[in-house]
Amino acid sequence: MVSQVVAAADEKPQQQLLLSKKAGCNSHGQDSSYFLGWQEYEKNPFDLVSNPSGIIQMGLAENQLSFDLLEDWLEKNPHALGLRQEGNSGASVFRDLALFQDYHGLPAFKNALARFMSEQRGHRVVFEPSNIVLTAGATSANEALMFCLADQGDAFLIPTPYYPGFDRDLKWRTGAEIVPVHCSSADGFRVTRAALDDAYRRAQRQRLRVKGVLITNPSNPLGTTVPRADLEMIVGFVAANKGIHLISDEIYAGTAFSDEFVSALEIVAELDNPTDVSDRVHVVYSLSKDLGLPGFRVGAIYSSNAGVVSAATKMSSFGLVSSQTQYLLAALLGDKEFTKGYVAENKRRIKERHDQLVEGLREMGIGCLGSNAGLFCWVDMGHLMRSRSFAGEMELWKKVVFEVGLNISPGSSCHCREPGWFRVCFANMSAKTLDVAMERLRSFVESSSNVTRRAAAAAAVLPARSISCPLAIKWALRLTPSTADRKAER
Amino acid sequence: MVSQVVAAADEKPQQQLLLSKKAGCNSHGQDSSYFLGWQEYEKNPFDLVSNPSGIIQMGLAENQLSFDLLEDWLEKNPHALGLRQEGNSGASVFRDLALFQDYHGLPAFKNALARFMSEQRGHRVVFEPSNIVLTAGATSANEALMFCLADQGDAFLIPTPYYPGFDRDLKWRTGAEIVPVHCSSADGFRVTRAALDDAYRRAQRQRLRVKGVLITNPSNPLGTTVPRADLEMIVGFVAANKGIHLISDEIYAGTAFSDEFVSALEIVAELDNPTDVSDRVHVVYSLSKDLGLPGFRVGAIYSSNAGVVSAATKMSSFGLVSSQTQYLLAALLGDKEFTKGYVAENKRRIKERHDQLVEGLREMGIGCLGSNAGLFCWVDMGHLMRSRSFAGEMELWKKVVFEVGLNISPGSSCHCREPGWFRVCFANMSAKTLDVAMERLRSFVESSSNVTRRAAAAAAVLPARSISCPLAIKWALRLTPSTADRKAER
C-alpha cells in the first residue's frame, strides 16, 4: 500500500526549492479577490428553496438562459449524443471517434464552427476552416497564442479593466508580460489612442519589447462591444507598428444583444492594403459563453498567419477537444435553422435579464456603464464606499460578500485604476434569484444611506467627495434602460 | 468579406521574426521521420478491400482490439452517452455537465479512475482521488509536470530509446532539457545504474541542473515492463539525490499481458522511509492505450506532493477534460464487473496479436526484444541493412515505407544509439491486415537475401560485419515466443 504522506511543516521550504519557480510563484493570479469570492460562495451557496440565506454567485459569467433550447434540440437529435450517424442507418461512430486524435480537428466540426462564427458576424466575415485551430477552451487558445507570438519578457498591451484570468492565462507559463492600457470612466472606459501610446511608451521605458495588443470584444468585464471607430483606431495602431500583433478575444460575440457586433477581422478587410496587417490579427473564440458550454472545453484560434496556425496546431496537442464533444457540436452547429433561432432567442433573453439588473440598480440609485453585450454589467458603487480608494472598495466588497451575501467581483481584481467599480453577473441565475439579489442590495443601500446620513450629520467636517458620488449619479441618469420588454414572470 | 491572404514568399523571413522563437524553431520534433512516416501513410492508407496496395500503418500505438467490449457496454448503458442519470428516473444531467468546469474534475470520475488505476496494480497501490490531476491526455500531463518541476534549462534524464513525442511534450514550451540515459542491447535495453550515473555526469559537465528521471513503464518503444530490481535501483537513485524527482509514465500499465506490472509507487511504499521520497515520485496515466480512447483526451497526474498537485491543478485549466467525456467514463470505469472482464480480455487479445507478430518475424529470421506489454515490438532489422549505421537504418526505413508499404518507426527517431532497431505496432489493425504486413515483409526479406547473397558473391572483400548480423540472430533465437495460444481465425 502506498500511504499518502503529507510532508511535515518544517520540510516545506526545502520542498518548495524542489519545484520550479512557476509552481512556487503565484503569478497565476488565483489568489486574487476574484477567486476568493468564489471560495466564499462555495462554502455557502444560495438556493431558493434549500439555502435561501446563502451567498448568491454573481461573479461567474455563465450563460444559463437558453439551456431549454439546447435540450429540445438534443431530444430531437439523439444521434448526436449517442455517437451515431444521422438518419435511418444510425450506425455507431464510436470506434472512429475513440481513435480520432488528429489535431487538425474533426472536419465536420470545424466547418460548422466556421459557419457559426460567420453567422454571428452577419456573414460579413468568411471564416476558412483551415485557419481554425481548436483548443480546450479560450484559456488554452490565449496561452497558445502568447507562446506563438511572445518570447519570455515580451509584452502585450491590454486595456483595463481586464479579465482577471489573463494574468494566469497569458503570463504564468509563457513568461510574457502585460502592460495595462489605462482606460477611464471619463471616456466610458473606451480605448483611446492616447492611452495606447502611453502604454507603449511605458513598456519601452521598462525595456519590454511590445509584441502586441490584446482586446476583448465584447469586453469582459465592461459588457460593451468595441465601437467601430475604436476598432479602426486599434487596427491602425497595429498596422503602423510593423512588429506587433492584435489578439481579438471575441468569445462573447454571440451575446451582443443590441447594436451590431463588429469583428476586428471586418476592419482589417476594409483596409486599403489588408495584406499588410491581416497576418498580424488573430481572433480567439469559444463556445463557453455563446452556447453556455464551458464544461465541454471548446475554444479556437482563428488566424490567417500560416506560421501561427502551424505552431498553434502543434501546441493544441496539449489541449485537444474531446472527439465525443466535437461530434456532438458538429451536429448541433451544423443545424443552420437551429443556430439561427438559438442566437436570436439567446440574445433576447440576455437583454431581458440585463435590463432587469440595470433597472433594479437604477431604482436604488446605482449606475452602470451603458452596455450592449456580455453576461454582466460594470457597476459603479463608489457612492457606497466610505472613501473612493481601493481600501474602500475592498471594505465594501467584503460587506457585499459577507453581509449582503452577493459574490460580485471588485474592479481592482480586473486591474481597474478607478476604485468603486464592480462586475456583476446576471445570466447564471433565475430571474427570481436575481430578484432576491436586488432585494438584498436594496436593503443594504437603504441601511447604508441611513448610516451615511447619520455619519454626515455627526461629522459634517468630512470632505464631500468621500460620501457623495457625482460620477455614479451621472451614470445612473444616463443609463436608465428601457423597461418595455421586461416579462411579467421574472 | 475578409479575404484569406497568404503572405508572399519574400515576406516570410520578416514574418518569422514577428513570431516567438518557439513558434519558429522545430524543437517540437514533429519533423522527425517518426512523423514523416505518418504523412506518407496518410497519402496512401491501406485498406483490405478498397486499397490493398496502400501503406499499412505500423507506426501508431493504438489499441483497436477491444472496441466490441466497450460497444457492448455502451449498448447496455445508454444513460452514459445520453447524459442521463442511471436507473428509472433517467433525468438529464446535460445542464450540470455543460456548466461543469471545476478543474478538480467530476468527483465520480476521479473516484472511478483512482479505483481503476488501483485495480491494474492488483490493488497493491491505493490511489487517493484528491491526488489526481486530470489533464487533456498524457501529453498535457507530462508537459504540466515539467512546468511544475523544472525551470528553463533544467534537465531530466530519460532512458533511450524513448517516445519521440517527448522532445515536443517535455522541452518545447517549457525550455527544459532531456539528457539521454544510454541503454544498450547488450543489457536488453534495461536501465543500469552505470548508465544513470553516466547521464548524470554528462548533465553536470553541460552545466545543467538535473531535476529528475523520467521513465516509461511499461516502456514505449520497448514493450517491456521495468523489472522490480531495476525500479528499486531507479527509486534508490532518486532517493539518494535529494534534489531530483521521478516521473513514471505508466500509460501502458493495462497492456502488461504476462508477468506482473510493478508501479514505481509500490517500490516507494516498500522503502524503510517512504516519506523521504514519496513526494518526489509522480505517475502519469491516460486512458488512450489501456481503453483505446485517445480521441477522448483523458490523462492524469498522480502525486503525493501537495505543491505539485496544487500547481498542476491550476495548469490543468489549459487542458481540461470535457465534462461530457468525464461523465461517460465515470459510468464505464465505475462498473467494476465490466472493468475486471475488460482488463483481462484486453490483455489476452494483446498477447495473441503480439505473438502473431513475433512468430511471423521469427519465421523470416527477424528478432525482437523479448516483450511483455505495450502495443508494439522492438524489432532488430540490422541484418537487412547494407551497413550497421544510421544512414543504413534510414535507407532501410525508406525501403520499408515506400517499397514494402509498411510505416514502422526507426529507432533513431526514438534516440536509440544503436542503428537497426524499429518499433512495430500490432494492435491498430485486424489480424488479417497483420498477415498482409507479414507477407509483404517476408517477400522483402527473401528478395533482400537474394540480393545480399549475390552482392556477397560479387564482392567478397566487403567486411563481414556490414552484411552479417550476429546480434540479430542472437535475439531471434532467444526470443522465440510460444505459439500455444494463437487462434485459428487470424
Automatic annotation (TrEMBL), chains A, B:
<dbReference type="GO" id="GO:0030170">
    <property type="term" value="F:pyridoxal phosphate binding"/>
</dbReference>
<dbReference type="InterPro" id="IPR015422">
    <property type="entry name" value="PyrdxlP-dep_Trfase_small"/>
</dbReference>
<comment type="similarity">
    <text>Belongs to the class-I pyridoxal-phosphate-dependent aminotransferase family.</text>
</comment>
<dbReference type="InterPro" id="IPR015424">
    <property type="entry name" value="PyrdxlP-dep_Trfase"/>
</dbReference>
<dbReference type="InterPro" id="IPR004838">
    <property type="entry name" value="NHTrfase_class1_PyrdxlP-BS"/>
</dbReference>
<dbReference type="GO" id="GO:0009693">
    <property type="term" value="P:ethylene biosynthetic process"/>
</dbReference>
<feature type="domain" description="Aminotransferase class I/classII large">
    <location>
        <begin position="56"/>
        <end position="441"/>
    </location>
</feature>
<dbReference type="GO" id="GO:0008483">
    <property type="term" value="F:transaminase activity"/>
</dbReference>
<protein>
    <recommendedName>
        <fullName>1-aminocyclopropane-1-carboxylate synthase</fullName>
        <ecNumber>4.4.1.14</ecNumber>
    </recommendedName>
</protein>
<keyword id="KW-0266">Ethylene biosynthesis</keyword>
<keyword id="KW-0949">S-adenosyl-L-methionine</keyword>
<dbReference type="InterPro" id="IPR050478">
    <property type="entry name" value="Ethylene_sulfur-biosynth"/>
</dbReference>
<dbReference type="GO" id="GO:0006952">
    <property type="term" value="P:defense response"/>
</dbReference>
<comment type="pathway">
    <text>Alkene biosynthesis; ethylene biosynthesis via S-adenosyl-L-methionine; ethylene from S-adenosyl-L-methionine: step 1/2.</text>
</comment>
<dbReference type="InterPro" id="IPR015421">
    <property type="entry name" value="PyrdxlP-dep_Trfase_major"/>
</dbReference>
<dbReference type="Pfam" id="PF00155">
    <property type="entry name" value="Aminotran_1_2"/>
</dbReference>
<dbReference type="GO" id="GO:0016847">
    <property type="term" value="F:1-aminocyclopropane-1-carboxylate synthase activity"/>
</dbReference>
<keyword id="KW-0663">Pyridoxal phosphate</keyword>
<keyword id="KW-0456">Lyase</keyword>
<keyword id="KW-0292">Fruit ripening</keyword>
<dbReference type="InterPro" id="IPR004839">
    <property type="entry name" value="Aminotransferase_I/II_large"/>
</dbReference>
<dbReference type="GO" id="GO:0009835">
    <property type="term" value="P:fruit ripening"/>
</dbReference>
